[in-house]
Amino acid sequence: MFLTGETSERVFNGKLRLPREFHLQKKDLFCKWKNEDTLILSDSLGSLDYMAGRDKLSGKMHIGADSTIDISKEYEGSLASIRGCVTTLEIQFSR
Fold it and tell me: What is the DSSP letter of 46?
């Protein structure tokens, strides 16, 4: 995965739109919460452990056909800063 760039989006109807330019629908992605407001996505478990920590549980992340991911209702209306960091995608929520 080679992602660079930064953008921001709002969580709307429990979904967050990710940049289409990253072509994430074609990848098997894993996710970990670094803290309560930072979600890390990657196709490499090693990169995910490095960015979020080994002590946190990881899971698979489904990317919808419209480049969206499902986000918990507690983040509804939050502004998400999305930053591509070469091997990971960091999503920081501002509530």
Answer: H
Residue 58 phi, psi (nearest 5): -110, 160
Q: Would the pTM of this model clear 0.85, i.e. be above it?
A: yes
Could you give the CA distance from residue 7 to residue 92 in angstroms, rounded to a whole number? 11
Task: Encode pLDDT of 45-58 as tens digits.
Answer: 999 999 999 998 89
- Give bridge partners of residue 38 from the DSSP assignment: 35, 92
E strand or H helix at 84:
strand 79-86
Rounded CA gap, 17 and 7, in Å? 11
Take residue 5 and report the two structure tokens written for it. 């760039």
Q: How many CB atoms lie within 10 A of CB 39?
A: 23
**Tokens standing for residue 91:** 């999503």
The residues pairing with 37 across neighbouring beta strands, listed in sequence order, are none
